[in-house]
Amino acid sequence: MERVEDFLARLPLFAGMSGLEVAAVAAFLEPRRLAAGAEVFREGERGQELYFVRSGRVGSYVTQSDGSRRDIYEFAPGALFGEMAIIEDAPRSATCYAKEDSELLVLAGIDFYRLVWEHPVIGVKLLGAMARTMVSWLDEASGFLGGLVRWGEAARRRAVTDELSGLFNRRFLEDTMRSRLAAGSGSSRRAALLMLDIDHFRDINAAFGAGAGDETIKAAAAAFAPLVGEGEVAARLSGDEFAFFLPGAGPERGLTLAESVRAAAERLCVQFPDPNGGPPERPVVTVSIGVAAAPDDASTPEDLTAVADKALYAAKESGRNRVVRVPPPGTPTRKGE
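Above: the chain sequence. Below: its structure as tokens.
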């Protein structure tokens, strides 16, 4: 059977890409076979994947108000479909099904955004080609789908970011770590990981309310984000927990960034009204940070996280508002407040 990259190279969508760029896209695709009549997805479902038809035919239809079915489009080999629900993070606008035995090449939504983020040149070319494809397709089906052309950076960011902080979310961080550390060797698997907690965060919530905690997280994220370099990932995990993943970096870069982040936290100016009518309260914000490096300290995402977590715990146990690289022997993984 024809290789996936050779198939993609024949499609107009990839006409502007080099062989290496096409191969990079092909690495993210999963083949999926469907028997005639099998549904790909149903109208109203949340979109998690987009598809290329490798062989066979895929039909689509919408359910009308009287319950009847109206066919709207047929996708032949080489066609792309399902991209709007991924980009817009919206429900599927139609039901798609295999009109005959078919094979699809499937790109998961999270992998689509990883591809755009990790390979921006490919991402620009792919998004541009997709836009042209969608314009052509909408010209043919404008009576049904004209209102679906609403996508952009905001939609892309929603799928991979934490709503409160604006930083990347846990899923994107973990997928990026897994992708970087699972393949390759030598310098390609070199990376640093920082794990961070806001010190005495529960006290801020207790003294000023949950809203104060949210405001502190947003202020901290705004201070941390500019410190992260190109290709590095700043993420909020949950609560007051943050992490920074630095692909290609050694422990020196990890420690340098950690100290910059710690100092930025000390400079935060957050204030909350005094319930008794006095001057606004300005709590001092500090952070504790644990640093680990691959392959020096660990070689897998799970082990690297565990080492950084232990170093964070050691930083908290030794007085907080500090950075620790190597945790003492026997340091537990669970973080304390």
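Residues 120-140 form the longest helix (21 residues).
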